[in-house]
Specification:
By secondary structure, this protein is of the alpha/beta class. The chain contains 21 helices and 45 strands. 24% of the residues lie in helices and 23% in strands.
C-alpha cells in the first residue's frame, strides 16, 4: 500500500469538520433565528405567557377570569397585538369592602396578578368611587402591541349584586375611574359594554341610592320658599329665549328678590305664553353667529344673578337639527365651565321605539360629553307606572346611556289636560274646579224669598266619574262639557308624586328636580312628601264636595260635605236680606279643606214686606170652648258646624311655640324594649325584617333624671345612635316622674305625675336638645285618664294640659321639627275614681287648649276580641269566651272596638276644628296566648279567644284600614319583644309578635309580607 498524500487527508478532515460545524452550530442558529422572527416569534411566546394574540385581519377574543371576555372586532387593530385579561388577587383587595368577599374561591391563581405598591393599580384601588358597592373581580387589561380602537367587554354579573338595574361598569384610565356605558343581557346575568379605548382596569359595581341633589323651581308668582326646605339648587323659572338669541327676564324674579343664601340655577325655556316655540331654537342653533350671541347673553345673565349655573329647557326641537343642538350645548358648556359654572340640559321625554328609544333632537351621548346634568321629565302616561312598565324601561335605558349620578328626574306637580292636540299643565285646584263643573238649581229665579228652599247639584253633564289608577297612584277624569270636554284631566297630588319619587332610589339617580311645588294652587301636601318620601307613605286622597253658603259680608254661614256621587244639597233662604253666594268646591281630604274657589251661584234674598189686606167687616163673635194653645211649628234650620264648648277660664298660658308640619304622613311603627337589653342590634334586625321604619321606646323619667339637674343619658344614647345608623325613626314616650319631683302626699305604690309640671318640661327639653334631629317624636305621658297612671290622684285634664303646654314649648324651642304627640288615653268607660271615659277626657283636653299644643293626637285603640273591620256596636261573636264587649252593662261601648275608638277621636277633633291633624296610635294590638304554653293573665281573658292567625289578620287589617283613612299618622303596634324580655306568661307578652325564645309568630310573617 502506498502512503496517502497529506493534502488528501487534510481535505477529508476539513470536510468532516465543516459538516460538524454546520450540524452543530449553524443549523441551531438558523433555527433560533427562525423561531425569534415572525410569524413564529418564540421570544414573544416565551415572554408573553397568558397573552392572546389578535391579528388585525381576523380579530379575536381574549378569555378572562370568571367567564369574562374581551372581543376585538376586525378592523380595530392596525397590526397584530397581544392582550391579557386577568384579575387582581385577593391579597390586593384585602382592605376593601366588597359586595362579594368570597368570590376568589372561583378564580385560579394563574388568572390573578398581584398589585405592587405605588403602581397604577394600587392608586386605582385607593380611588374607588364612594357612592357604589364594588364587586370582585377587578379586571386588569394589559396590551402588548397595537391598542385596539374598539372592543366588546362581557362579564358575568355577580349573583350577590341583586339590583341589576343598578349595575354599572367603571374603567380606570390611569388617573381616575370613569363610568362607562353598558347594557344588561341574558336576563340580568351578563353585563356587556362597547369600548372605544381599553382602560387599564374594569370593575362591575352596584350604584347606591343617593338622591341627595334636590332642586325646586321658583317662578315669579310662587309662594316663598319655606325656611325648613333646603334644596341643593333653586331653579329660577321665567327666563324665555328671544328671537335674537337674547333672554327675556320679565317673567322671572329680579336678582334682588332671589332668596338669600340660595344656590341659584337660571332655567331658560322656549315657552312663550304657554306654548312651546320650537322655531326660536331651530333658527338660533343653525347660525354660528346667533349661537355666539346667545352664549354671551347667557353668561352675562349668570354673572348678573350670581348663579351657579344654567338649565336650558328647549323643547320640541326639530330632530333634523340634533347635531346643531349638540354643538350649542358643547359651546355653551365650555363657556360656562370657563366661568366655573355648570350646565344642565332638560331633554324631551324619549318615546319608545321598539327595543330602543327615540330621543328626537337630543343625542344623550353627545350632550353628556359637556353637560353636567341631564334632566329627564317623568312620563305623563299613567300606564307607564306599572311595575316593569315604560317608566322602568326608560330609566333602565337612560342609566345605560348616561352616568346615573348625572341624571335628575324632573317631576311636574301640576295637573295636566291632555288631548290629541296638546298637553296643558294646570294647577291642582283648577283641575278640581273642572271636576266640580257647573251648578244647576231647581229654579231659574235669582231672588229667593225668606224661607224658600233651593235645591242645588252639579250639572248632569259635569257629574263625571273620577277614575283611580293604582299603578300611578293618582286620579283622572274626562269632562263631558266646558272647554276641557273630551280631554283627559290627570291629577297630580302627594300620593302620585310619592310614586314617582320611588324611582330615585330604585335606579340610584343623582337627584330630582321638582317643578311648580310652590304654586299655591297645587297640592300643599307635596312639600311634606318631598321631605319624607323615604320614611313615610302619604295617604290617598278622599274626595268629597264641600257646599258653602256665604253671607253678603263674605262669612261662611253653612258648610255641608257631600260625596261626589251624591252631591245634591238643599239650602233655605234666611230672613236677612242681601246677596248670598252658594259655592261647590272639591276637597281631597274628606271635606276638611276645600281647594280652589269652585263653582258658584248667587242668589238675592229681598227685603220682604207682606202685602196689606182689607180689613173685613166686623161680625158677631161666636162662643167657643177654650182650647190649649197650639205649639208653633219650628222653622227649618240650616245644618251648621257644632258650636265649640265654652272653655273653662284658665291662668295665662305660656307662649305657644309654632306648630310644626310633622306628623302628617302615615308610617309603620312598633313598640320595642331596648333599654339595658344588650341586644339592640337583634331588636332592630327584627324591626327591619318586617319593613317598619318607626320604633317607640318608653322612657321612664325617673331612671334618667334621678336628681334635679342630673341626667344619665347612656342607655338612651345607645338607642338613638343605633336607630339613626339604620335610618329608623324614634318616638320616645316619656312617663313616670322621679320621687323627688312628685307631690309630698303621693301614693308611691303607683307611678304618677310631678308636682310642678315645669320639672317635666325641663327634662323633655333637655332630651330634645341632646337628640335634636335624631329623635323624631315625643309622646307626653301615657294613659293619663287611668288612676294608676296618674298616681291615684284625681283625674284632671286641666292639670294634664298644663303639663303638655310646658312640654310642647320646651321641645319645640330645642327641636322645632320634632313631632309632639299628646299622651294617648286608654279607651275606657270605667267610672271615677278609677278612670275617665276617654271621649270625655279628650273633649276636656280640647277645651283646655289641646289644638295649640300638639302636632298629633295620641291614641290607644284596643282590639280585645273584636275584629277591626266590623261595625260597632252591633257585632256579636257567640263563640267568644270573654263576653265583655257583647253582654252586660258595658257591652257596645266604643272602647271595645279599634275602629269605633279611632273614628270617635276623629269626630271630636273635627268638632273642635282640629281635623287637619293626624291621630297617632301609639299602642294597639290583639292578644293571643296560642302556642305560648300559658293561660291568659288575669284581666286579659280575651287573649284566649284570638288565635295566632286571627291576631295576624287583625293587625294587618288595622294597618290597611288606617292607611286608607288618610288621617292616621305612624301606627305603633304593641309590641315586638316583651315576651323575650319578661317571659311568655307576662300579660303584655300575649301581644308580642315573637315568642319568649324569639321565634316569630304568624303576625311577624304577616307584617313582613304586608304591602306597605
Amino acid at each position: 500500500m502506498s502512503a496517502e498524500k497529506p493534502d488528501g487527508f487534510i481535505t477529508r478532515f476539513r470536510g468532516k469538520r465543516i459538516e460538524q460545524v454546520i450540524a452543530m452550530v449553524l443549523v441551531p442558529i438558523l433555527l433560533i433565528v427562525a423561531l425569534l422572527l415572525p410569524p413564529v416569534s418564540l421570544g414573544e411566546r416565551l415572554f408573553s405567557a397568558g397573552y392572546t394574540s389578535i391579528s388585525a385581519s381576523e380579530g379575536g377574543t381574549v378569555l378572562g377570569p370568571a367567564g369574562a371576555t374581551l372581543q376585538i372586532p376586525v378592523g380595530a387593530l392596525e397590526k397584530r397585538s397581544r392582550i391579557r385579561l386577568k384579575a387582581l388577587d385577593e391579597a390586593s383587595l384585602s382592605g376593601l369592602s366588597l359586595g362579594n368577599p368570597d368570590f376568589f374561591a372561583d378564580i385560579a391563581d394563574k388568572e390573578m396578578i398581584k398589585v405592587e405598591p405605588d403602581s397604577s393599580e394600587h392608586l386605582a384601588l385607593q380611588s374607588l368611587p364612594a357612592e357604589v358597592v364594588n364587586f370582585a373581580p377587578f379586571y386588569h387589561i394589559d396590551v402588548r402591541g397595537d391598542q385596539p380602537t374598539r372592543a366588546l367587554f362581557s362579564a358575568q354579573i355577580p349573583y350577590e349584586l341583586a339590583n341589576t338595574e343598578r349595575a354599572d361598569l367603571f374603567g380606570w384610565d390611569g388617573q381616575e375611574w370613569r363610568w362607562l356605558p353598558s347594557e344588561i343581557a341574558d336576563g340580568g346575568l351578563t353585563l356587556n359594554a362597547e369600548l372605544d379605548t381599553l382602560p387599564e382596569m374594569l370593575t362591575v359595581a352596584q350604584a347606591e341610592a343617593m338622591g341627595s341633589r334636590f332642586s325646586v323651581s321658583i317662578s315669579k308668582d310662587d309662594q316663598p320658599l319655606p325656611d325648613d326646605l333646603a334644596p341643593t339648587y333653586i331653579n329660577l323659572e321665567g327666563f324665555v329665549l328671544k328671537d335674537d338669541g337674547g333672554v327675556d327676564t320679565k317673567g322671572a324674579l329680579a336678582p334682588s328678590d332671589v332668596p338669600t343664601g340660595a344656590t341659584v340655577v337660571l332655567s331658560i325655556s322656549n315657552i312663550v305664553d304657554g306654548t312651546v316655540q320650537s322655531d326660536i331654537v331651530d333658527n338660533m342653533i343653525v347660525s354660528p353667529e346667533a349661537r355666539a350671541e346667545h352664549m354671551a347673553n347667557v353668561v352675562e345673565l349668570v354673572s348678573e344673578y350670581g348663579a351657579a349655573g344654567v338649565e336650558i329647557a328647549y323643547g320640541n326641537i326639530s330632530p333634523a337639527l340634533s347635531q346643531d343642538f349638540s354643538t350649542l350645548v358643547a359651546e355653551l358648556g365650555q363657556a360656562l365651565h370657563a366661568e366655573n359654572k355648570f350646565l344642565a340640559v332638560r331633554v324631551d321625554t324619549p318615546v319608545a321605539a321598539g327595543p330602543t328609544w327615540d330621543t328626537g333632537a337630543y343625542d344623550w351621548r353627545a350632550l353628556s360629553r359637556t353637560a353636567d346634568l341631564i334632566r329627564l321629565p317623568a312620563m305623563l302616561s299613567l300606564d307607564s307606572y306599572a311595575d316593569g312598565g315604560e317608566m322602568d324601561a326608560l330609566l333602565s335605558w337612560a342609566t345605560r346611556m348616561v352616568d346615573r349620578r348625572r341624571i335628575d328626574l324632573v317631576i311636574d306637580t301640576c295637573a295636566h289636560v291632555m288631548n290629541d292636540r296638546r298637553v296643558e299643565p294646570i294647577s291642582y285646584a283648577s283641575a278640581l274646579g273642572i271636576l266640580a263643573g257647573e251648578i244647576e238649581t231647581d229654579t231659574e229665579d235669582e231672588e229667593l224669598p225668606p224661607g224658600k228652599v233651593i235645591r242645588l247639584g252639579l250639572a248632569s253633564e259635569n257629574n263625571v266619574a273620577l277614575e283611580y289608577h293604582a299603578d300611578a297612584r293618582t286620579y283622572w277624569f274626562t269632562p263631558e262639557s266646558g272647554q276641557s270636554a273630551g280631554s283627559t284631566v290627570l291629577l297630580e297630588n302627594a300620593a302620585s308624586v310619592s310614586r314617582k319619587l320611588q324611582y330615585i332610589d330604585r335606579y340610584a339617580l343623582g337627584g330630582v328636580s321638582i317643578s311648580a311645588m310652590l304654586n299655591g294652587e297645587n297640592d300643599p301636601d307635596i312639600m311634606h312628601v318631598v321631605r319624607t318620601f323615604r320614611d313615610e307613605q302619604p295617604s290617598e286622597p278622599s274626595f268629597a264636595l264641600v257646599w258653602t253658603a256665604e253671607s253678603p259680608d263674605g262669612q261662611v254661614l253653612v258648610r255641608q260635605v257631600k260625596p261626589l256621587d251624591n252631591a245634591s244639597w238643599a239650602w233655605q233662604a234666611p230672613r236677612n236680606p242681601g246677596s248670598y253666594v252658594l259655592r261647590a268646591s272639591v276637597s281631597d281630604d274628606g271635606g276638611e279643606t276645600a281647594l280652589g274657589s269652585g263653582a258658584q251661584v248667587k242668589v238675592v234674598v229681598p227685603d220682604f214686606t207682606p202685602t196689606p189686606t182689607a180689613t173685613p167687616e166686623p161680625t158677631a163673635t161666636p162662643t167657643v170652648e177654650p182650647t190649649e194653645e197650639a205649639e208653633a211649628e219650628p222653622e227649618p234650620t240650616q245644618e251648621a258646624d257644632p258650636a265649640e264648648p265654652t272653655p273653662t277660664p284658665q291662668p295665662a298660658a305660656p307662649p305657644v311655640a309654632a306648630a310644626g308640619s310633622a306628623g302628617r304622613g302615615f308610617g309603620y311603627g312598633i313598640q320595642v324594649h331596648m333599654i339595658d337589653q344588650g341586644d339592640i342590634g337583634r331588636i332592630l334586625d327584627h324591626v327591619q325584617a318586617i319593613g317598619f321604619n318607626w320604633v317607640k321606646q318608653q322612657v321612664e323619667w325617673k331612671l334618667f333624671n334621678p336628681a334635679p339637674g342630673q341626667y344619665n343619658w347612656g342607655a338612651l344614647d345607645q338607642i338613638v345612635e343605633a336607630c339613626n345608623a339604620r335610618g329608623i325613626r324614634i318616638m320616645f314616650s316619656v312617663v313616670k316622674a322621679p320621687a323627688w319631683a312628685r307631690p309630698g302626699h303621693s301614693d308611691f305604690s303607683v307611678e304618677g305625675p310631678p308636682a310642678d309640671p315645669q320639672t317635666y318640661a325641663d327634662f323633655v327639653g333637655a332630651m330634645a336638645n341632646r337628640y335634636r334631629g335624631r329623635v323624631h317624636a315625643y309622646e307626653i305621658w301615657n294613659e293619663q285618664n287611668l288612676h294608676y297612671e296618674w298616681g291615684n290622684e284625681p283625674l284632671d285634664p286641666a292639670r294634664y294640659m298644663q303639663l303638655l303646654r310646658l312640654a310642647y314649648n320646651a321641645i319645640k324651642s330645642q327641636d322645632p321639627n320634632a313631632t309632639v304627640v299628646s299622651g294617648a288615653l286608654t279607651p275606657t268607660g270605667a267610672p271615677a275614681p278609677w278612670a275617665m271615659d276617654d271621649f270625655t277626657y279628650l273633649e276636656l283636653m280640647y277645651q283646655h287648649g289641646l289644638k295649640n299644643y300638639c302636632d298629633a293626637v295620641g291614641a290607644h285603640p284596643s282590639g280585645y276580641n273584636v275584629p277591626p273591620t266590623v261595625s260597632w256596636p252591633g257585632f256579636n261573636d257567640p263563640s267568644a269566651g270573654f263576653r265583655g264587649p257583647f253582654d252586660g252593662p258595658g257591652a257596645g261601648h266604643h272602647s271595645w272596638s279599634f275602629q269605633s275608638t279611632m273614628t270617635g277621636y276623629r269626630n271630636i277633633m273635627a268638632r273642635y276644628g282640629d281635623g287637619g291633624k293626624r291621630i297617632w296610635p301609639t299602642e294597639f294590638g290583639w292578644a293571643s296566648v296560642e302556642n305560648l304554653g300559658v293561660a291568659p293573665a288575669a284581666g286579659y281573658e280575651y287573649a284566649a279567644d284570638n288565635s295566632e292567625g286571627e291576631q295576624a289578620q287583625y293587625i294587618v287589617q288595622a294597618y290597611q284600614m288606617a292607611r286608607s283613612w288618610g288621617w292616621v299618622g305612624p301606627m305603633f303596634l304593641w309590641n315586638l319583644n316583651f315576651a323575650p324580655v319578661a317571659g311568655n306568661a307576662w300579660e303584655g307578652s300575649a301581644f308580642s309578635i315573637v315568642r319568649g325564645d324569639w321565634s316569630p309568630r304568624p303576625a311577624f310573617h304577616a307584617l313582613q309580607n304586608m304591602a306597605k
